[in-house]
Amino acid sequence: QVQLVESGGGLVQAGDSLKLSCAASGRTFSGNAMAWFRQAPGKEREFVAAISASGDSTLYRASVKGRFTISRDNVKNTVYLQMNSLRADDTANYYCAAAASASLSGGNWFKENYAYWGQGTQVTASL
Fold first, then answer.
1. What is the C-alpha separation between 21 and 71, in angstroms, rounded?
2. Which pLDDT score, from 0 to 100, does residue 11 have?
3. Strand, helix or coil at 80?
4. pLDDT tens digit string along 64-108?
5. Which of 42, 9, 39 lies closest to 117, judged by CA?
6. What pLDDT does residue 44 have?
7. 2-54 pLDDT, tens digit each
8. Angle at 56 between CA 44 and CA 80, to 5 degrees
9. How far apart, in whole angstroms, are the C-alpha atoms of residue 103 and residue 109?
């Protein structure tokens, strides 16, 4: 059974940091690009960041660039999202996803291009 399990969410104050983890089991994802999406109440799920299978390429949405860092450890089959300088508008449920492709392209922005999803972890940044 293939699973992606997120952890590391929580309630913090604006300006604080959190590091999310996404542990994969059931198969290796070392040949897949991986991404983080988020969904706030009443809003569409939106792309946050993606990383290529090798880890040498990354993509970020503009509002998190410079504050968030995506990384991966293919030995541990785990993807991370380091979130610094959190803002109230970063509050959402954060989801890990695995793409079918190894490299990154414009298609990585769209949730329809991801085959596997985790259950999400809640991040709340209060003012």
1. 10
2. 98
3. strand
4. 999 999 999 999 999 999 999 999 999 999 999 999 899 999 899
5. 39
6. 97
7. 899 999 999 999 999 999 999 999 888 999 999 999 999 999 999 999 999 99
8. 50
9. 13
Structure tokens at 23: 């542990």
Please state the length of the chain: 127
| CA 7, 42, 33, 113 torsion-angle sign | positive
CB 117 within 8 A of CB 91: no
Sequence-separated (6 or more) residues with CB below 8 Å from residue 20: 6, 7, 8, 9, 36, 80, 81, 83, 94, 96, 121, 123
**Separation between Cα atoms, residue 23 and residue 94, nearest integer Å:** 14
d(CA 93, CA 121): 5
Phi and psi torsions of 49, nearest 5°: -160, 155
